[in-house]
Write a structure and sequence with these properties.
157 residues, alpha+beta, Alpha-D-Glucose-1,6-Bisphosphate, Chain A, domain 4, seven-stranded antiparallel sheet, 4 helices, 37% helix, globular
Length: 157
């Protein structure tokens, strides 16, 4: 199953990249949702090779996911790969400068099952893909709006 979204953001590409690669804020968001998160890499910085283990509850069961930043190309985008059981997710964010103060952000989440139990787990999601895609695009639009608002507030300050 593939989910895609595209947003044009009224902010420079570097500003959008900083928001997309603000892993600390994403870690806090995961923790606020009740998951446990541990950073498992030894890099200590921000970039390719960052890894996490996430313990969370989904569909009434405790699950564990492992995430890794597999692409970090400043200021063009970020790629994160994850797996949990038989489910693999590859998430990419591509940024294209449309002008000095406007950036196009394209997000793609590719979710794949690697075994039969994972296929059975994902089947309801594929049947509800239209609704999931709508919610995904709405979350991306909210994120883009927040980046625009933060950028315009920083310029005014």
């Amino acid at each position: 199953m593939e989910l895609t979204a595209r947003e044009d953001i009224e902010a420079p590409q570097e500003v959008v990249f900083e928001a997309v690669s603000d892993f600390d804020s994403f870690e806090r968001a995961i923790l606020r949702r009740g998951a446990e998160l541990r950073r498992t890499d030894e890099t200590g910085g921000v970039g390719e090779g960052m890894c996490w283990e996430v313990d969370f509850a989904w569909r009434g069961r405790s699950r564990r996911a492992e995430l890794e930043v597999v692409g970090f190309n400043r200021p063009d985008g970020v790629a994160v790969k994850g797996h949990s059981g038989g489910v693999e997710v590859h998430f990419t964010v591509d940024l294209v400068a449309l002008s000095r103060a406007r950036t196009r952000m394209e997000l793609r989440a590719d979710v794949r099952a690697t075994n039969l139990p994972a296929r059975l787990l994902l089947k309801p999601m594929t049947l509800a893909q239209a609704g999931i895609l709508k919610r995904f695009r709405k979350k991306v639009a909210v994120f883009a709006g927040k980046v625009e608002d933060d950028w315009s507030a920083a310029r005014r300050a």
